[in-house]
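Worked example 3 (structure in, sequence out).
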């Protein structure tokens, strides 16, 4: 029987520490392949393969057929110098034309790790979100999924070979249940896992933090199922089936030249997930994606590091193929400029729900 524990040894280590072996391997592979930026053409139709500074709208707009049908509808808005109220009104009208009604999800067009994701319930709230963004920044509004459960599906398709699911992870949004006399802070503090991560949940629950939660009332601690925001990830590779693999290959065949990344997918229940039915894609992530099963609380450090190293060896291998086909690798200056732009914009994004 697995030991019951709230987090793994390394689950919340600093990112730089977990990725130190990756950085060392990257340098060695750069010498072997004679290129420091070869992974940045692994998905050759996406700027920097989706490693950093990428546009969600640009990537999703390349989808056709089954992939476009599976993607939840979205609208891209570029923040401008019009009054915020006018922008919000116009955006709500555009959303309505696309079949997107309140409440809907707002997130930055350029951003990662769940930064700036908001569940917008009213036009007034949309105005508050728009107010936070600088002029020229892109904002994606997306239809709210029909289902609550979410999974991360890590997908790899080597050129000339069928694609395959390399990792499947269930994402759980933590919650507490009221007892009628404890405040939210007290309930969270007593939870074996959430109590160790108070700093992640307090800022997202400020209004209710010192309020007493009624008996039997379920209080969700966050909306965005991002690990760094406090979501719980569960290794679900044992749930991968031939039906799910076929369904994902059919979907991804309609996203040209996409070879490496993760799909964040909403699904009805486990049987429908395994059957590859009724999948709703929230987002498609590129080269910066992780096989997020490594953040399961029972994961072992050695296996997690081995998985990360495999991922980046795979990026170099796919990048080498595309270079042989005539694709040019970007320069370091391009990589740095995209990283700086994303970092600068992230400072403006509102607190993630």
């Amino acid at each position: 029987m697995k030991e019951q524990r709230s987090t793994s040894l390394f689950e919340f280590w600093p990112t730089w520490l977990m990725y130190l072996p990756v950085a060392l391997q990257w340098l060695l592979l750069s010498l072997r392949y004679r290129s420091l930026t070869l992974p940045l053409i692994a998905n050759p139709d996406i700027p920097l393969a989706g490693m950093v500074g990428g546009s969600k709208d640009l990537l999703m707009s390349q989808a056709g057929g089954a992939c476009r049908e599976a993607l939840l509808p979205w609208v891209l808005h570029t923040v401008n110098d019009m009054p915020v109220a006018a922008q919000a009104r116009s955006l709500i009208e555009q959303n309505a034309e696309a079949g997107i009604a309140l409440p809907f999800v707002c997130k930055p067009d350029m951003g990662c790790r769940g930064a700036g994701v908001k569940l917008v319930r009213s036009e007034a709230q949309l105005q508050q979100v728009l107010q936070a963004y600088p002029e020229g920044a892109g904002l994606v509004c997306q239809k709210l999924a029909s289902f609550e459960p979410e999974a991360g599906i890590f997908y790899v398709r080597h050129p000339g070979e069928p694609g395959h699911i390399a990792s499947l992870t269930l994402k759980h949004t933590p919650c507490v249940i009221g007892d009628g006399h404890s405040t939210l802070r007290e309930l969270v503090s007593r939870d074996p896992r959430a109590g160790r991560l108070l700093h992640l949940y307090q800022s997202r629950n400020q209004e209710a933090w010192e309020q007493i939660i009624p008996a039997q009332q379920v209080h969700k601690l966050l909306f965005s199922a991002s690990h760094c925001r406090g979501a719980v990830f569960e290794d679900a590779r044992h749930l991968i089936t031939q039906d799910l693999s076929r369904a994902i290959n059919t979907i991804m065949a309609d996203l040209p030249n996409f070879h490496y990344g993760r799909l964040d997918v909403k699904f009805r229940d486990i049987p429908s997930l395994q059957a590859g039915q009724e999948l709703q894609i929230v987002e498609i992530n590129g080269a910066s994606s992780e096989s997020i099963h490594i953040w399961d609380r029972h994961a072992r450090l050695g296996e997690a590091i081995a998985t990360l190293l495999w991922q980046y060896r795979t990026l170099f291998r796919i990048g080498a193929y595309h270079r042989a086909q005539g694709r040019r690798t970007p320069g370091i200056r391009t990589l740095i400029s995209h990283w700086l732009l994303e970092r600068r914009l992230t400072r403006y994004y509102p607190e993630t729900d």
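Notes: The CA atoms of residues 186 and 210 lie 8 Å apart. The longest strand covers residues 164-172.
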